[in-house]
Amino acid sequence: MSDPILTSPLSSQLKAHTHAIHEQLDHAIMTAGMFSDRPGYQNFVLVQYRFHRDLNALYGDPALARIVPDLPARNRFAQLVEDMADLDIPPPEATESPVAHDPSEAMGWLYVAEGSKLGAGILTRLAEKLGFGASFGARHLQPDPAGRSRSWSAFQEAIDRAGLDPDRCVIGAESGFTRVIDYLGSVTSARA
Ligand code: HEM
């Protein structure tokens, strides 16, 4: 009998393979008090800034935009630059982006960022309680113009029909999640 994970669409495979690491990340964010006060939220924005800076070039990659046509418009790095300025967070030193150039791995990284826009629906409401929103401090958490659900479905459909290598895509997604967890570890240990 064939393995149901291996025969399902790429987006379902990505979800299944990264379920545990996503849970680990959600838990780490929520227990680190990142939505309890301004310093916690500043740490969250710094983590997001670093991760999206790593991805900035991928969102402008023409080969990847042939798979997801509105890819450049999905990029949240400019909003993160503004959120950093709103919150008086100095941009950290540039580091080399670890993102792979293989298109399947690269799309795995982008899956992490695009999927995070679903969880951002919850996080937006928590950020609002701290006084941050679409015009100050939480610009990057706002939904894409099509809405969270439609934007996510369009991304899933695009990657599902692209003929990408599922194994390499999963490697990219796992690397993306690990990168966010590493950034989280560096800000939370600095605060402790
Ligand atoms: C930067 C941090 C985060 C990243 C990178 C991230 C990543 C993702 C990804 C890739 C997905 C798509 C899963 C799929 O394939 O359907 C997702 C969905 C989701 N995330 Fe997160 N997430 C983050 C933080 C959070 C947090 C803190 C919460 C909870 C408070 C959360 C709650 C959710 C929820 C509710 C969904 C939708 C699940 C579903 O519809 O089945 N996320 N996230």
Name of the CATH architecture: Up-down Bundle
Tally of individual domains: 1
Q: Taking Cα atoms only, what radius of gyration do you get, to the nearest Å?
A: 16 Å
Distance between the termini: 50 Å
Pattern of helices and strands: HHHHHHHHH
> Are any ligands bound, and if so which?
protoporphyrin IX containing FE
Share of residues in helices: 55-70%
Number of helices: 9
Inertia-based shape: globular
Please give the largest β-sheet: none
In total, the number of strands is 0
* Structural class by sheet pairing and helices: mainly alpha
- Assigned CATH superfamily: Heme oxygenase-like
User: Given this structure, which CATH class is correct?
Assistant: Mainly Alpha
Beta-strand content bin: under 5%
Please characterize this protein's 3D structure.
One of its GO terms (molecular function) is heme oxygenase (decyclizing) activity. This is Heme oxygenase. It holds the Pfam family Heme_oxygenase. With about 190 residues, the protein is mainly alpha-helical. It has one domain: Heme Oxygenase, Chain A (Up-down Bundle), CATH 1.20.910.10. The chain has nine helices and no strands. The chain has helices spanning about 5, 10-30, 40-60, 60-65, 70-75, 75-85, 105-130, 150-160, 165-190. It is globular and about 45 Å long. The N and C termini lie far apart (about 50 Å). The structure holds protoporphyrin IX containing FE.
